[in-house]
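WARN retry 2 of 3 for item q-0093 after timeout on previous attempt; input resubmitted unchanged.
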Amino acid sequence: MFSQQSFSKLLLGVACSAAVAAHAHANLLTNASFENGNFVNQGNVTMVLPVGSTSITGWTVTADQLAWIDMGNPWGLSAQEGNRFLDLTAYPTGAPFGGVSQSIPTIPGQQYELSFYLGTYTQRWGGPPVSITASAGNASSTFTVATTSTASTWTPFSMHFMATAANTPVTLIGSAGFQYIGLDNLSVENIGGTPIPEPRTYILMTTALALLIGAGHRKRKV
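OK item q-0093 returned
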């Protein structure tokens, strides 16, 4: 039979394992789809933000100005998730392009995955190519859509990086395009460290927990 102390330790271990698994899947970015912030419609359901702006909750505009666009805009563009998204070209045609940056808490030596959607509508707003350069931790890479799009289109990309400090800036900047480089629905997840339990593991954990609780009740009745 389990002692009360052993029973408590086992329960704690199961709870900690579940908590670690949940944290490993958590998106470390704040306001990852640009839905929140001090949005002001400056016309065309669009707000142009200068370098250094923090109007978008959690984010800082970098490199050059960009456009924060809402649902109902006249550009024929839609968000990948929610109602708002970014156009890293703003109103001017061609380079230089804008970008956004956010610092997230990380564990040095751990591996992370950055994912995002790149928006295009090349038939109307130019390109291909349409590109974004992403940088985080020890990695930097340029992601490109090289095909023609005849409507508002979103293409997913991802990049792995290793954290080298307790806080890691995540930066995405437009690097190729004409009048539209879309960005929406970002995510950074920790993919290193403790393995994430498979669904079968969760079932075994639940079963073990039920057996342990039953054993504890039987012991108290003796």
